[in-house]
Structures are given as structure tokens and as C-alpha cells.
């Protein structure tokens, strides 16, 4: 009587997917990191945005911007710049915002050494 045919005897047993456990580990770790990074960086302690600027004279430009901070008792320093037509920085100041409101809007003048055509808020940071 012939023996029963077995594919396992003929071809061998295929090993399991060895990559499955590391793939699941890296997927869970990557998704957790992605969620943390997205939530952490989407809600910074200080937010700022340029609202408008106006050229008040050949050597001065007025910058209007808003600042939002989590800690209303923190002193914040914002760096404002003025640029000329070739995008060279012709004026820069550090505007210090005292403790007070958590959300505020400011208008500050930036003196320039030449004719400025635009202005920007480069950064805001805690003192």
C-alpha cells in the first residue's frame, strides 16, 4: 500500500513570516512618534503672525503683527526686519513684549538704513 502523499514531505515546510514582528513593532513605534510630533509641533508655546506693514518714510517701516503665548507671564522678544528691493536686510530690531495678555496685537516701527519695501517677523522667543 502506497504511503499517503504529503506536500510537506515533498517540498518542506515554509518558514513563517519573520519580518512580521519587526514590521509591526516599527509601525507602532512610527505611528506613535508621528502622532506625538504632530501634536507637539502643532501647538507651540508662542505663535506669531505678520498682519501688515506700511512704509512710513524712506528710513522707517511700521510693522503690525500678532502674538499668542501660553504663558501670559512670560517676557517675549520678537525679531522684526525690514528688507529693500533686492531682499537685503536694511533694518532689524528686537521688540520686547512684557508680561500681560496671552494674545495681543502690536504695531512697531523699524528704522532702516535705506529704503525698505517690505517687513517681516522673523521669530518670537522667550527671554
Automatic annotation (TrEMBL):
Keywords: Membrane, Transmembrane, Transmembrane helix. It holds the Pfam family DUF4307. The keyword Membrane applies. InterPro entries: DUF4307. The chain crosses the membrane at residues 20-39. This is Unannotated protein. It comes from freshwater metagenome.
Amino acid at each position: 500500500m502506497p504511503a499517503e502523499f504529503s506536500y510537506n514531505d515533498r517540498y518542506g515546510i515554509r518558514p513563517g513570516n519573520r519580518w512580521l514582528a519587526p514590521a509591526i513593532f516599527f509601525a507602532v513605534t512610527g505611528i506613535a512618534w508621528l502622532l506625538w510630533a504632530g501634536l507637539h509641533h502643532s501647538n507651540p508655546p508662542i505663535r506669531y503672525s505678520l498682519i501688515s506693514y506700511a512704509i512710513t518714510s524712506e528710513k522707517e517701516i511700521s510693522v503690525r503683527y500678532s502674538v499668542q503665548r501660553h504663558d501670559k507671564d512670560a517676557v517675549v522678544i520678537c525679531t522684526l526686519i525690514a528688507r529693500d528691493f533686492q531682499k537685503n536686510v536694511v533694518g532689524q530690531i528686537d521688540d520686547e513684549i512684557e508680561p500681560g495678555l496671552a494674545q495681543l496685537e502690536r504695531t512697531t516701527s523699524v528704522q532702516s538704513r535705506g529704503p525698505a519695501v517690505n517687513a517681516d517677523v522673523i521669530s518670537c522667543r522667550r527671554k
